[in-house]
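Morning - iron/sulfur cluster inputs below, output right after.
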Amino acid sequence: MTFVVTSKCLGVKDRSCVEVCPVDCFYDLRKPSLNKRFNINPKKLNWHDDIPILEEGEFDTSLDWGMLVINPDECINCGACVVECPVDAIFEDIEVPDTEKEFVEINAQITQYSDETLNKLRVLKKPESSS
Ligand code: SF4
Ligand code: SF4
């Protein structure tokens, strides 16, 4: 069992889920092909600019491609992220809608990357603002 991010995250990617995850298991899957398949225009980057794009080719690095995914090897299945998502993109794997089933595999693909790449792709909580 794990939790899975689905296509609704594309073009939203606001990181609300990251802020509540106790094990920091969200990763930035910056794949332009996902935006193209789902007809989602990438937004201008507004919160990171050092995360690599994971596909070959010429892509505008000033744009925020792809979506966040959950690493199934790290998720502890607490469910805390589900209610935080403003677009209801996160499901338990056995409850992913039929039309979104491919995202179980798309999330799991994050485990194929090296530790070095994973460290670059991991999305961390925003630093506490100092008072
Ligand atoms: S279910 Fe819990 S551990 Fe898994 S991604 Fe969501 S918040 Fe993180
Ligand atoms: S809260 Fe939902 S839309 Fe926002 S980054 Fe997480 S999965 Fe994507």
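Note: The chain has a mean pLDDT of 93.

O.
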